[in-house]
Amino acid sequence: MDDEPTRSSAYHTTRSAAGSTIVSLHGELDLLAVSALSAALDALTAVSRPDVVLDLRPVSFIDCSGLGLLCRAQSRIRARHGRLRLVTSASTFRRLLRCTGLSGAFEVHPNLPEALADGAPVARAAASRG
């Protein structure tokens, strides 16, 4: 049997700051990773008015199952009148959102301090204009 780890090696770390739960996702968000991360995100989004920031900067790859995970989290958070913000400066991820018609579905910020700042969702407003 092969003792090498699988290609998918996503993991997450969670912390709190400025009243938000920050989840840093690391590695690849593919089918194998999503099955491992789903329960953790479901638990975080099960509360009333969840305020979640997903830091995607350490993510090296995302496929359709990873996008599905993000959409599920967004849906659960909206149903509970909460807020989800994504943090990424990767142009490839923003392009992926545009190509799939999801650019207006998420509040996207280039860095963590901007995502944690109070105020209007700047990236969503900018995406709606473009």
Automatic annotation (TrEMBL):
<dbReference type="InterPro" id="IPR036513">
    <property type="entry name" value="STAS_dom_sf"/>
</dbReference>
<dbReference type="Pfam" id="PF01740">
    <property type="entry name" value="STAS"/>
</dbReference>
<dbReference type="InterPro" id="IPR002645">
    <property type="entry name" value="STAS_dom"/>
</dbReference>
<feature type="domain" description="STAS">
    <location>
        <begin position="10"/>
        <end position="119"/>
    </location>
</feature>
<comment type="similarity">
    <text>Belongs to the anti-sigma-factor antagonist family.</text>
</comment>
<protein>
    <recommendedName>
        <fullName>Anti-sigma factor antagonist</fullName>
    </recommendedName>
</protein>
<dbReference type="InterPro" id="IPR003658">
    <property type="entry name" value="Anti-sigma_ant"/>
</dbReference>
